[in-house]
Fold this protein.
Amino acid sequence: MTDHHPSRFIGCIALSLAALLLSACSSEARPKVEYALPDTLCGSDVGKNIVEPFFPPGSKLMKTGDSFDNGTYASSCTYVVDGSPTLIVSYFFHESTSSARQIATQRAARYSDGDAKGAVDIVDDIALYPRGAVAVEQCPGYPSDTDGLPRDNFSVEIMAYYPKDLSKEEKALAQLVKKIIPVVAKANGC
């Protein structure tokens, strides 16, 4: 007659150890966002839900730069979490009609970290590259010689450092750019 009790005992110990390990892993504190997420980016009302994927865990958020509703020729603002740049949002006017793809291709070459994924995709007239997104809009209502600077069209660009792989957040990034374009256009009389 074979005694199955020792194998059951060893099985119970193994199962108990596995449960203990799983509960220890699940109870580890995940890094969390301890700062208030912004609901505006550079003066553009965007809502907290749309910016959430681009802000990493941390304790302190700082913003530097200008608001985009002031009608200047070019402007940018930077969001920094715990001393590390997280999001850079900018716009500037152009004399020539550079396309969003042209600008994004230059950025992809510069910021793709030598990665072969330096490709540019277009989503709803917004060019997406590995670290961000850019859109170009016409500004026919602004007299280009008002201050001696060309204002035929402008670009809005967002460069994101978080998350490392932006491919899952392309739609949210495109939505952010779309929300900022009207603020810049209105402030500059486009």
